[in-house]
Design brief:
Layout lengths: L9 E4 L8 H10 L9 H18 L5 H15 L7 H8 L11 H8 L4 E6 L3 H11 L7 E4 H4 L6 H15 L6 E5 L2 H10 L3 E5 L19 E3 L2 H12 L4
Parallel strand pairs: 1-2, 1-4, 2-3, 4-5, 5-6
């Protein structure tokens, strides 16, 4: 069967890395704690990504803001920096809502919501996503929000995708082949989505450091766009909606 991207009913979105520029958010929040930091953004992100992967495996039930608080001193130590005070780590953990959206995110989501139900499948907690939604994603309507806190595990655990599919089927009668996972991270989203039998749209976000590839270095996707705006353009062209 040949699928067009417009044949789907639900777009399931990763948030941080796809809609939100988490790399700038994380590196800026971390750099703010150190004057005259001599560590590159790339080094911060590479170290963070390795730690996050380990900590999410160790603490699958820990809300993301508290996970970030735990990661913060370990990240400083890994980069051979002074270990921060506890309150500084808590501020870092609570910084998620301040991480900026990519410039194209809000306008593209507003366009896409004319054609699909938009659903969130995120590795964050309720409070952190609520802050992001209020501050960074105005005028966008999400039909459902599923967080790691609610599910009890972090992506790339296949359980998160099974939870998504179970709930959209129960609530809306939508089947697996009507859901398109839409995300930047190969590691967190595209590999496990394929294992769960989902097709996916890769929003590449050129220059991204974290989550770019899984362990095998293979790129998995059914549709590929550099930006979310490019995806919205393609959907509107296929739909004849060029307003």
């Amino acid at each position: 069967m040949v699928f067009q991207i417009t044949s789907y009913k639900v777009l399931s979105f990763d948030v941080y890395g796809t809609l939100i520029d988490w790399e700038s958010g994380i590196s800026n929040a971390f750099s703010n704690d150190y004057q005259d930091l001599q560590v590159s953004k790339s080094d911060i992100l590479s170290a963070f990504h390795a730690l996050e992967k380990d900590y999410q495996s160790l603490y699958p039930l820990l809300p993301y803001s508290r996970l970030l608080t735990k990661i913060h001193p370990a990240l400083a130590s890994k980069l051979k920096l002074e270990v921060p005070a506890e309150h500084t780590s808590i501020v870092f953990g609570n910084s998620v809502g301040e991480w900026p959206a990519f410039p194209d995110t809000v306008s593209a989501l507003r366009r896409l919501q004319r054609h699909f139900k938009l659903v969130i499948l995120s590795n964050t907690d309720h409070a952190s996503f609520s802050a992001t939604n209020a501050k960074q994603l105005p005028g966008v309507e999400f039909g459902a929000v599923f967080t790691a806190q609610e599910i009890g595990s972090y992506k790339p655990n296949k359980r998160n995708f099974e939870y998504l599919l179970e709930h959209v089927h129960r609530e809306w009668g939508i089947k697996k082949d009507e859901v398109l996972q839409t995300a930047q991270s190969q590691f967190h989203d595209h590999y496990p989505a394929k294992e769960a039998g989902l097709r996916s749209a890769w929003i590449v976000r050129p220059g991204a450091v974290m989550g770019e590839h899984g362990n095998k270095g293979e790129e998995i996707w059914d549709w590929k766009f550099d930006t979310l705006e490019a995806m919205a353009d393609a959907v509107e062209e296929l739909s004849g909606d060029l307003s």
